[in-house]
Amino acid sequence: MINTFRSAKTLRNLTMLVLVTGLAACSGAPRIEPTGINDPHEQNNRKVHAFNKKVAGSGNGGGLAKAVPVEFQTIIHNVAENMSMPQVAVNSFLQGDIQGFGLATSRFAINSVLGFAGMVDAASEFKVPEHDTDFGETLYVWGVGEGAYYELPIIGPSTGRDVAGRVVDLFTNPLSYALESPEKYVGTAAKLTDRVLKNSRRSDMISDVLDGSTDSYAQARLIYLQKRRYELASRTGTMATYDDPYAN
């Protein structure tokens, strides 16, 4: 009886989410592509930027990443990626991206069964390409504007639209309804840990790019906005070339 009630509640929550977000999509205003920098919270953002550089180990050779075995880092990344796939599938569906929905669903099914609950990326061995998206991108597709620039603790640079997307994404992953505590939080914890380790691995490169400039905060802001706008514009075929200075 309890399981039946829980299943019905989960189905109702997911149905309501799809209906509400679908209505929001229909009422979205025409998208206006941003060109400048909207940073009304710069003073606080700079404080968070300084904190994030310390967490990433910028300038000290990525001490955190060096202290964690590479094999364990790979497992964390694989688990984070796999547990995000149901969320990616939902967002792909809301964007009308049927191919992306199929890719996310296939990767989750293969890696969950053949990849030991996602610890191994078996889907790539079967030539299933990676696919990623989020509710921030869904909002972009619906025509929601970029909003102000933010730098978030640990997560890093973002925009008002993407901050809202991150909040909604806390509820768009079906696993958060299907799993019990504490298993339902494994994906979120793995994703945050993976992000910290990734930034730590790239700390020397980040230090070279940011600390080599006269203003590391302004440089990080510019790089993020250019990269994010390029990624989103690529969906509409209006993209220009972009060289990621953080790329390995």
Q: Write down how many β-strands occur, each being a DSSP E stretch of 2 or more residues.
A: 2
Biggest beta-sheet profile? 2 strands, antiparallel
Using only CA atoms, what is the Rg? Answer: 19 Å
The share of residues in helices is: 55-70%
By helix and strand content, what is the structural category? mainly alpha
Strand content of the residues, in percent? Answer: under 5%
Strand order within the widest sheet?
A: 1-2
Report on this model:
With 248 residues, the chain is mainly α. The chain contains 12 helices and 2 strands, in the order αααααααββααααα. Strands 1-2 form a two-stranded antiparallel ribbon.
How is the secondary structure organized here?
Layout: H1 2-26, H2 42-56, H3 63-67, H4 70-94, H5 98-114, H6 122-125, H7 135-142, E1 149-152, E2 156-159, H8 160-172, H9 175-178, H10 186-201, H11 203-210, H12 216-233
Antiparallel strand pairs: 1-2
Write a brief caption for the model.
The chain has 248 residues and is mostly helical.
Sum up the structure in keywords.
248 residues; mainly alpha; two-stranded antiparallel sheet; 12 helices; 64% helix; globular
